[in-house]
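yo, 2-oxoglutarate and iron-dependent oxygenase JMJD4 is done. seq:
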Amino acid sequence: MDRATFACSTAFFRDYNSSSQGAFCLPGGHVDFIEKVESFTYSDFFRDYLIPNHPCIFSAKITEDWGSRRNWVTWDGKPNFDHLLQKFGEAVVPVANCDVKEYNSNPKEQLPFKEYIKYWKEYIKNGYCSSRGCLYLKDWHLSRAFPEQDVYTTPVYFSSDWLNEYWDAIAVDDYRFVYMGPKGSWTPFHADVFRSYSWSANICGRKKWLLYPAGQEEYLKDRHGNLPFDVTAPDLQDRSVYPRYNQSQPPVEIVQEAGEIVFIPSGWHHQVYNLEDTISINHNWVNGCNVAIMWCFLQDELAAVQREINEWKDPIDDWHLQCQLIMKSCTGIDYKEFYNFLKVIAENRISVLENGLDDEASAKNTPKAAISTLGMLHAVFDLKRTVKVLTSLSANEDFKKLDLTSLSPPPEALLHHLKAAIDTALL
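structure:
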């Protein structure tokens, strides 16, 4: 998208603020289907779905040119096991057992990919039954392991992706995944990491999604405050165990066909079933539209840790640091890394605003190229949202109790730089 297109959308960038985010109830459980993707712009998606935190489905036209759609699927729409084995047979992949519950999730093991495909073929041959249970290949970082493979291209709608921009920059992790599983495999009730957005594209097969708007999960907790493992389980009807279940809305139900992409809003809990042998590509991502939700989630997570170990507050000299360590072990991030996350995102945008983009960077698939594609106005929007969250983080008492001398630049200096960059860009 060129800058002129985004310039036409100045008003909606200016008018929306963090108060526009939050729970959204869909009338009648309706989810929009985007059929004409060729005429559906990023601005349309930003206005109608990202900002209001509203799900939608993109038609299979959006993925028809992907290498995985061409090569990973047989003529009759099934997984192309031979091709997959040829390309990835020696990989080691994470596999979950859908028939076992362990700490409110499915236990995982690492298996050779060729062993998993052998299991899958036998599972189909035996009428979708095995003494090993229903095994589901989940959270495979295929793009990171095989960057040379022609698998897919991230659609422009999902290109403002701060999570992967940051984790790519520090070369530690990413939030791009491949899922493969037989008919009957499923994912228990959950919300995505950091309460991020997610998008999920079916390469082949069909999925059924049960979605609950953000906030509805409060009615699904048991009397101890725990969420259900399976939101369809009969024991949710027992008011002595789930006292508020009758106040919850029915889930929004989506059946996703081959080639389609589902957009899941930030903080929406969901449960997902594979109705057929299915392969999907999934991303989790955060950007200026939902970074405040991520920050609220981190504060809630730290508060939960503090309550859990409150009795040890006096005997432990570095109690606040220990709480940060526990939170990071549970969520993958602590307050200081969250600061660095915001810094990397902000500095990338400041660099483009102050220095522009050279031809070499424009030609590459880099964060700066993505920023340029979405336009300078979008970079300013990102910086404004970062300023709001960074201001809140800097004023947070738990953050101020940490040793912040290692942060470079200091929070006050970074905030000053951000505000100056915004003012200059808007002149």
